[in-house]
Amino acid sequence: MDGLATKADYAQALRGYQNAVEEMRSPDRDEVERADWLPETREGDATGFFPRRRVAPRAAKDSRLEGHDPPQRVSSLAIPYSTPTMICGACERELPEDAYSAEQRGRRQSIRRCEECVDSGNQLVLMKKGSTRSEEDECPICSLPLPLDRKQSSSQVCCMKRMCNGCVLAAHQRGIRGCPFCRTKKPKKSQTSQTLAMVQKRFDAGDPAAIYLLANKYDRGKYGLEKDVARAVELYERAAELGVKEAHYNLGCTYYEGVDVKKDTAKAIRHYEAAAMRGHVAARYNLGCEEYNAGNYDLALQHWMISASLGDRDALNEVKEMFTSGLATKADYAGALRCYQSAVEEMKSPDRDEAEQYKRDRRSRAMDRSPDDGELDQYFVPGRERWPSRF
Ligand SMILES: [Zn+2]
Ligand SMILES: [Zn+2]
Ligand SMILES: [Zn+2]
């Protein structure tokens, strides 16, 4: 500190510090530190090292909080003199640590609330955003929200539009050949290089949906591409930056599983949260599981209530189970059930029912195909997502 302490003060502080550091060291501890830089081992491995939690850097000190004048020059020996601050996940204000209860202080920013927000019942931004389906979840032809089961809709590589099977079937029955939206003739399933060329064209034009689709094909080694997860992650990240919630979700799954990339649960959760805040239903469900497993039942319930109200049956069952085990009220469950039912109703249409029936019939007469089947099948190829991380 500039002229506010003597040289003797500093020398004494330095001696004390060095002794304390020495006391905290041991050969074993040094070993653990080194191990942290080794390639990470998965849970259950014999070595038993888990990734260390990285402590977030403290927010910059704000001298205004305590009414001091800001220091003229930052000294490397500056001693913290103001309370560290944290951002509240509900009001998004940066507040001193003591504005939070001890329990809330231990939480990550997205699920932490200041005392004031807890008292007034101000909800987390994480729960306020994405509680309805987004516009891009609507079928561009019938304008109804797309079914949650991705097998009941398909992406067209010509225009990158995702449409429900009901509209695909209806267009086919009206004699429309080609994409039901833009009428472009689609290459046959076997013509993967032509399909890839069409995606590439949209990709080159910077279409986020094409970036996502290509990432997905690298992820699974489709369209004649060799499976390349590193490339897939890179493209998912680009698509995620452009707001594609499915890309966030797939990144979440990839980092959570940690099979093809280094496992990173914190990163996975950040991606699930980004997806959920854009209305991604499975990501929302997974966050519910995560909070439930962490013992944050109030947050788990909030996530599952949202997920159920968007039409997710698994989430509805979780809310029901929480009700039967006394962790949710009867009103919670009744509310979730009501919203779930209306979401399911909204996703229904006679054309969609007919498309499902058509697929069932197709399966039962697989040996007896009509020439028309092949043509229509091309449009029933679902653009898949990863669905493995339902716990
Ligand atoms: Zn707050
Ligand atoms: Zn439709
Ligand atoms: Zn099209």
Automatic annotation (TrEMBL):
Gene3D superfamilies: Tetratricopeptide repeat domain
Pfam family, one: Sel1
Region called Disordered, residue ranges: 21-76, 347-391
Top-rank taxon: Eukaryota
Basic and acidic residues composition-biased segments: 22-45, 59-71, 347-372
SUPFAM superfamilies reported in the protein's UniProt record: HCP-like, RING/U-box
InterPro entries given in the database record: Mitotic_Regulator (IPR052945), Sel1-like (IPR006597), TPR-like_helical_dom_sf (IPR011990)
Name of the molecule in the record: RING-type domain-containing protein
Organism annotation: Thalassiosira oceanica
